[in-house]
Amino acid sequence: MEIENLSVLEKASLLSGASEWDSRGIERADIPSFVMSDGPHGVRRQLGEGDHLGLGESKPATCFPTAATVANSWDPALAEDMGKALGREAHDLDVNVLLGPGMNIKRNPWCGRNFEYYSEDPQVAGRMASGLIKGIQSNGIAACPKHFAVNSQELRRQASNSVIDERTMREIYLTAFEIAVREAKPWTIMTAYNEINGVYAHENAHLLIDILRNEWGFDGMVVSDWGGSNSAVAAVKAGGTLEMPSPGFTSVRELVGAVNAGTLAEADLNARAAEVAKIAQLTKTTGVGRNDLLKDDVIADHHEVARRVAENASVLLKNEGGTLPLKPGTRVAVVGDMAKTPRFQGSGSSKVNATREENILDELTAIDGVTVAGYAQGYERQGGENRALIEDAVALAAREDTDVVVAVIGLDERSESEGLDRSTMAIPHVQIDLVKALKGAGKPIVVVLVAGSPVETDWVADVDAVLYIGLSGQAGASATARALTGAVNPSGHLAESWPIRYEDCPSAGWYPAIGRDAIYREGPFVGYRYYETAGVPVRFPFGYGLSYSTFVYADLVADEQGVSFTITNDSDVPGATVAQLYVRGPQGGTLRPDHELKGFVKVQLDAHETQTVRIDFDRYTFRHFETASNSWQTESGEWTLMIGTNAHDIALTTTHAVAGTVEPKPSNPALGAYLNGKVKEVTDAEMVVLFGHDVIAPGKPTTFGVNDPISAWEDSKGFVARTVAKTLKNQERKVREKTGQPDLNALFLLNMPPRAMSKMTQGMVDAAMVDGIVKISNGHTFRGLGTVISGFFRNQSANKKTAKELES
């Protein structure tokens, strides 16, 4: 049946969820309901009605390495293999739409959700995401890249406004999505919670129509983040398709009313309804029953895929004197709580009920070639002082039958979670105390570092080797054991910069924004673009990674289509390296970072093998976004092409004449400190030049509205609202201190604005009731309660009427 033949009410009903994870279907029109599920690194198919925070029980599924770890492989083909496995499991667990990958740019290492995102660079994020999307969709499952767009902090995430200049947005924060949309053609995409320059992402026509649909050619379904829709009518006008999870029938009535009143074109309603119907048809052959579990052969095969991803993503950060790989016969003291009780994923909606679980202690014990001399816990998991644990570890390390100490340290479960940003880049100090104490034993120390995002590493001088495994998924322990013993040659490279200290980060002075406006004051100088331009030293640069092999780069040649060069494995050990193409624009041209990544390739080489390697140019290589003409342009002139092993260490350089679309235009001198990337010195006046308009963050609101988070109620004049906010904050703190895990429910509620209540309660709360709740937040408790109570009964009556109309 054609969409146009459905009633306005039926079409409107398709544009919001029926439950936490299900869309609405229309049986007579052969539009089945479809199931959505979290799945950036594993299918979280929840039982019963479920919840969107990962609190409820879910079916067992393979927990693959998180996106931050997968990105360290720099291997889109490997990401595609992982995507194929993810898509297969989604199929078998009767999931139609897999909500991933997460691909926001890592603006700041404190973001609590960085472990779910790929990189600080759009080339890496876009190409890795493309691989995963292709793999997922090869199974007839829709991938859903997220969170579109400019989503960089968890604090106030549902009530935050990302204020950013157009050029930075287009070149840094949208290019990764553009690459994924153009290369992998995802069937769906998820919008972010936040506003962008004052307009919610799910109703931002500039984002969803001008750019996503008209410029990039996206023709799929745009789904809101759970509770992230603001106005159903505004969303449909602006290209937003599906509200999730379920606002009941409130949005349906709003859409019907707008069409009848002439304020919403029925053509727009038709277009959005057709997008939902298309996904229903594309994915309708998924699965055979919602109670299905994965078969044993699938579990075994996918555990091996997870191991292979982890093996290719581990990053050797230090290896003094060839400490690694461990030599045959080495007697190893294994130290660290995380060696026995593994941490291999983050907290929040991406948390997977893993089909298997490994730990490093058992895997080292089982592996041939080394002997585990003993194990010591070494530290309290949650950071509590316990000198006895350190003393036991040092005693084990000092024993005559110990040759090498393997210490497993890193961030705990409280540090990296959806809904909560980090407050420090340091690992718990008791772990640092352990490392320093172990040095006194006089044995080589190998650190296995577990973390989904960068940490400060002042302690690195006290150890001989560091293997960074990230959050490596359920097979990460066996992958780690194989890397430590040389069965695997580490080939990962960092997909983000590791500053020496947090204060070195370009946005450290204004992150996270505690008010409504998150001002992207640093402009395009994110990650290595800042460190390399401003000359700020880092601990480990973007793209960095060591190997048990050594590589020699030579013979760089450029032509009109790209560059070629040779790489030789100048060692007796087969291995892989990541060749990275960086470009520098013409002298005297537009403002840009000193150099930017524009291509990469991972190259596997046998011992003493030489390969000729090629990296082609593409639409992204030389372009910049010109705000005056609202178009992409390329500057003519002499560009510098560089091949590096990371953003700082450049092995080969050549120049290349580019016939562009515009002549180089000197930057406006009024940009001041931006001209040399020193964004910490930028004045308000210089920021106005970059943005093209005044950028002033407002102070605290004197009254609260429907889009102010509940956490802001702590400053309310009303006792009830103030008590609610303080109680939630105290509850979250107590749970975190007691369990070592963040209280995701409390965090979600604190970040949530009242209008989200009408989007997430399956029709129990409507917009009129939200107005009553806002009255309570402003101290008008009894008036607000009256509005809520009377609105409840009106809403229930209206819901019954709408349901009956849809059934008839």
UniProtKB/TrEMBL annotation:
BP GO annotations: carbohydrate metabolic process
Annotated SMART domains: Fn3_like
Matches recorded under Pfam families: Fn3-like, Glyco_hydro_3, Glyco_hydro_3_C
Domain Fibronectin type III-like: 577-647
GO MF terms, alphabetically ordered: hydrolase activity, hydrolyzing O-glycosyl compounds
InterPro entries membership: Cellulose_deg_GH3, Fn3-like, GH, Glyco_hydro_3_AS, Glyco_hydro_3_C, Glyco_hydro_3_C_sf, Glyco_hydro_3_N, Glyco_hydro_3_N_sf
PROSITE patterns: GLYCOSYL_HYDROL_F3
Superkingdom of origin organism: Bacteria
Keywords for this protein: Carbohydrate metabolism, Glycosidase, Hydrolase
Similarity remark: Belongs to the glycosyl hydrolase 3 family.
Protein name from the UniProt record: Glycosyl hydrolase
Higher taxonomy: Bacteria, Bacillati, Actinomycetota, Actinomycetes, Bifidobacteriales
